[in-house]
Amino acid sequence: MLQRLAPHWGGDWWFLTYLGWARIEVGEVAPGIAEVERALAANPRNAYAAHARAHGCYEAGDAAGGAAFIAGWLPSYDRRSQLYGHLSWHRALFELAAGNSGEARALYEAEIRPGASHAPPLFALADAASFLWRWQVYRETPPIEDAWPEVLSHARRYFPVAGLPFADLHAVLAEAASGDDPAVAERVAQLRAILGAGRLPQGRSAPLLCAGVAAFARGEYALAAELLEPALAELPRVGGSHAQRDLFEDTFIAAALRAGRYDSATSRLGTRLARPRSAQDPRWLAGAAPGG
User: Fold this and answer.
1) Which DSSP category does 119 fall into?
2) Contacts of 145 (CB under 8 A, 6+ apart)
């Protein structure tokens, strides 16, 4: 659709931002980055182009380049703006991928957690919950369980009941990590009721993902893998970008490995290694065998 419109928009910086970002998300990473860079050249303070550029680095597996870009671009951007915390989240993921866990944690504390971020409630929830969950799934040390109560409080305040699945997925991360099994069960039941009423466009993937991450938090890794695997085929339906949705695929791989389902983990990793997004994948693959 954007390519059909392109002849009418020429070098418009806003249009180029979204054309480039669309290319990046569908796998045309190099031409997409080039268009986003044209957008930034036309308007260097365009935060959405900076955001799209970060996604380009993520899709290219360029953690060092992504961290350096955001670190250089962000200081002149008002930290009260809605993308400040989210761009810091992207940088934190790059730092994690590069092995700089201390820097990633410092970014979380200063710029990403709900009490520090000026982002809209959904952004703040998704960024904080997904960062902390990755920390657990990747087995980073030391654990940071003490950060979950703030995220859980934020989720309860702004998304107390199910209905917006992308928010529900991240609220469940906080509920599950905090051991609030009744809240998880209630949210999953509400999603299933909405699905049964024919009012959940995301289909069965949303309640499956919620139930799967909850099983993972309880240490029931075989069950987690069983619940998560069928949802992965429909993962794009829940919304968000690759950078956001990869969290659930990561959780499946970690669950499969911890449950001894090495064939399932290796199969999924084989698909993922065709793209360079995650620095974690080669480390997981090395352990995807008994005794690995």
Assistant:
1) S
2) 177
Q: Per residue in 134-171, pLDDT tens? A: 999 998 889 998 999 999 999 999 999 999 999 999 99
Amino acid (one-letter) located at 80:
R
Helices (H), the chain: 2-9, 13-25, 29-42, 47-60, 63-73, 84-97, 101-107, 121-137, 148-158, 165-177, 181-196, 205-217, 221-232, 242-258, 262-272, 280-286
CA R_g for the chain: 19
Peptide bond before 290: cis, by omega within 30 degrees of 0?
A: no
**Mind listing the pLDDT tens digit for each residue in 10-28?**
899 999 999 999 999 999 9
d(CA 222, CA 227): 9
**Hey, CA dihedral for 165, 171, 177, 182, is it positive or negative?**
negative
Query: Which secondary-structure segment (H or E) carries 145?
Result: none
CA 33 distance to own-chain centroid = 20
In whole angstroms, what separates CA 91 from the centre of its chain? Answer: 12
**What is the DSSP secondary structure assignment for residue 207, as one 8-state letter?**
H
Residue 247 burial (CB < 10 Å; 0-12/13-18/19+)?
buried
